[in-house]
Design goal:
Number of helices: 5
Distance between the termini: 29 Å
CATH class: Alpha Beta
Shape: globular
Number of strands: 6
Strand content: 25-35%
CATH topology: Aminopeptidase
Order of helices and strands: HHEEEHEHEEH
CATH architecture: 3-Layer(aba) Sandwich
Bound molecules: coenzyme A
């Protein structure tokens, strides 16, 4: 993600979250936070309007934290979220993380399904974490990202993902 992408990201952000980040939060993550890495997923034509997904991580020593991930509502269910998560996992591993964590709304079954598929387990509940409606957050966690077991799981899931994407292209 670059500063030029923030406008397109904000369109998706406001359609995806009840309490959305302001553009300044993305700009500060991109320009000031040395621990932050943000990415966009585009549809083939490569223009700003074609950003369909984005996601971000912080990597602090061997811990990674997924700060956000979203797909444009019109483009959900086409594996963009999964591709973004795979990318965030690889970036985390490449930058030295062994563990990865995130918070999700307790009611957000779609996101939790995606994370569980990639080996995340719920390790805690943060009561009334979301100030807009007092909803609990579930804290999810996966690791050891650098271990053989996780590497095999990730490779198998990516293989299946590639096969699905190839089949959809036909
Ligand atoms: C969560 C989100 C990123 C998923 O992206 P997506 O592109 O729609 O999802 P994908 O097509 O990549 O699906 C991948 C997996 O997600 C889960 N999933 C996706 N859509 C689902 C649905 N309608 N119901 C249940 N699970 C679903 C499944 O586990 C699916 O894998 P499977 O089909 O093999 O079981 C997207 O729904 C989104 O942007 N939601 C709003 C923002 C948000 O909640 N972000 C997460 C904050 S913690």
């Amino acid at each position: 993600m670059s500063n030029a992408d923030v406008r397109a990201v904000m369109r998706i952000e406001s359609l995806s979250f009840t309490t959305s980040w302001p553009a300044s939060a993305f700009q500060s993550e991109l320009n000031d936070n040395k621990l932050a890495y943000y990415f966009v997923g585009r549809e083939p034509s490569d223009s700003e309007a074609d950003v369909v997904a984005y996601g971000g991580i912080w990597v602090i020593l061997d811990d990674a934290h997924i700060t956000t991930i979203a797909v444009h509502p019109d483009r959900r269910g086409h594996r963009y979220g999964e591709q973004m998560l795979v990318h965030l996992l690889h970036e985390s591993i490449a930058r030295g993380a062994s563990w990865i964590t995130l918070e999700a709304r307790e009611s957000n079954e779609v996101a939790q399904n995606l994370y569980r598929k990639y080996g995340f387990a719920t390790i805690a509940t943060r009561r009334a974490y979301y100030s807009d409606n007092g909803e609990n957050a579930v804290v999810m966690w996966a690791g050891n990202l650098r271990g053989e077991l996780y590497a095999q799981r990730l490779a198998a899931l990516e293989h299946a993902l590639d096969a699905t994407l190839t089949a959809e292209d036909r």
